[in-house]
Amino acid sequence: MAAKHTPVTLDDSPLPLQILDSQGRVIAVNDSWKALTGYTNIEVEGAYYEKFVPAEWVPDFQRSLQTLLTAGHLDGTRCHIKCKDGATLEVLLFARLKEADGERETHCILLDTTTSQKAERKLAESESRFRSIFELSPTPMVIHDGHEVVLANKAASTFLAYENVDALIGTHISQLVHADSQPGIAERVKRMMSEDWTAPLTEETFLRADGTPVYGETVASPLMVGDRRLIHVVALDVSERRRTRAALAESEERFRCLFESSADAIVVHDGEKALLANNAALEYFHLPADTSVEGLSITDFIHADSLNLITGRIAALMAGHSSHTPVEIKLLRTDAKVWIAEAVSSLITIDGNRMIQSTFRDLTERKRTDRELALYRDELEHLVEERTNSLSQARANLAAVTAVVSHTVEMRDPYTAGHQRRVAELCMAIAGAMEMDEERANALNVAAQMHDVGKVLIPGEILSRPAKLVPIEFELVKSHAQAGFDIVASADLRDSIAEIVYQHHERMDGSGYPRGLTAESLLPESRVLMVADVFEAMASHRPFRPALGMEPAIEELLDGQGTRYDTEVVDYCVSIALSGFEFNEQ
């Protein structure tokens, strides 16, 4: 026999309630509504509700009313109400459209967002008296008897991915709890079923209807309905927070790996003492690989010539002045040898403490070639400035510049002597077969003759090593494309020449470097240069292997035709090679 319930009146609810007609006029409000707003029945009943809405929010109210009249409900719509004293409250509106005596009415609950937690506790006080409020709550709630679900709201069925609330009611709680969480939940349920004890906020793993896990933070407490002891559980979905936490942990691990594997020296310090240093820093400062740098004085590693500069920048950073401008400084190794570095520092926070992260890029090798590069750049700029109106003279000057560039690279890398010149020869043969216009062909010729100029920044011992390079050395060699672009771009040449140099190791399918460009971003001249470069490199002697010959070179091009290399360019190159083309060995 069903239990007999005491009739519930409008004023029984602890939450503000209002009833409006389909035109938006107030039919009735309860005492909680009047206490919240300060109005009396006389001031409210029969008035259009817009009177109690701040002017700037009236359009939103009108849209919400139309949505309610169309959809029949509003769940957690954010609204604003103007109190009698002029204050504006922001509330969440939960509303249902009902029929009364043939007229449509909207029954609304207002939830003051500043007191939402208090309201949620009140919603859970009585299953029988405030059942409608329980169902409207956006927070997942379940009431069970220690074995099966007795009552649940729509938010709970959504949280657990059940088709509806009815499908969830009657489900054994063990079906809703992941095996990892079952022992702890069983212990807490046993205690709550025997004593008035509220389980503290706990993160648990639950199971959706399809068996997939979902994570929630729950608070549970016993309640008595008549002589029946039940347990009321309120849950907060923390699945996204867990995913964010996992992503953060993964990000931290990734950045830790980047920190440790960086080719630049990185030191974290407080302006006086070191805290962390990566492997490159230990190597540059000539410290054993297993050295703990924590507590080491950073001034012990700064040359006297750079001490004032560095201490000044540190003081500025610690005072809150941000600066990411690189500065060239002198540093000391533990064996007292000096090394020159480009340093950049930034302020970071570790465990609530302000620290400085300093990154040092070794410039020692670069300084050895600065004079050579300066001479080259000066000559290049001088020759360009002296161009005359005579096209033939301009081309002669440009040929002299490219010869200087080629000679510069060849002096640093004797194993590839003549490589640029031979690549340029093949490029011109392909350009002629393709009937490339003269302007593009000239740009291609210049770029081909200096495409490896960036190798002047690579240590000579790496370029000339007669063995296969290790990965980190190969990464250093790969940087010559960027370096070549920077060098050529600094001269007053056509923009496309620097870009062709930049792209000569890219590939049509994006597998090249340094930018991973794909076909739509590659210049026609670059497509020719990359094919000629590969063919000549395979057909000629390299530091780590003898020449492979023409057949393997053709095989490589055909294998990559249409993927790595441009189809038309490969066809012309292969045709030229098979027609008896030979490089000029002058």
Structure description:
The chain is α+β, with helices and mostly antiparallel strands and 586 residues long. It folds into four domains: 12-123, Beta-Lactamase; 139-241, PAS domain (Beta-Lactamase), CATH 3.30.450; 262-362, Beta-Lactamase (2-Layer Sandwich), CATH 3.30.450.20; 366-578, Hypothetical protein af1432, CATH 1.10.3210.10. The chain has helices at 31-37, 41-44, 58-71, 116-123, 131-136, 154-159, 165-168, 182-192, 239-261, 279-284, 304-318, 364-385, 391-412, 419-433, 438-449, 460-463, 471-478, 480-489, 495-503, 524-539, 550-560, 567-578; strands spanning 17-21, 26-29, 73-82, 88-100, 103-112, 141-144, 149-152, 199-207, 213-225, 228-237, 265-269, 274-277, 327-332, 338-350, 353-362. The strands form three sheets. The chain has a five-stranded antiparallel beta sheet with strand order 2-1-5-4-3, with helices on one face. Strands 7-6-10-9-8 form a five-stranded antiparallel beta sheet, sandwiched between helices. A five-stranded antiparallel beta sheet has the order 12-11-15-14-13. Helix 14 (419-433) packs antiparallel against helix 15 and helix 20 (524-539) runs antiparallel to helix 21. The longest helix has 23 residues, at 239-261. The radius of gyration is 38 Å and the shape is elongated. The model is unreliable at 1-8 (pLDDT under 50).
Provide a short characterization of the protein structure:
The chain is α+β, with helices and mostly antiparallel strands. The protein contains 22 helices and 15 strands.
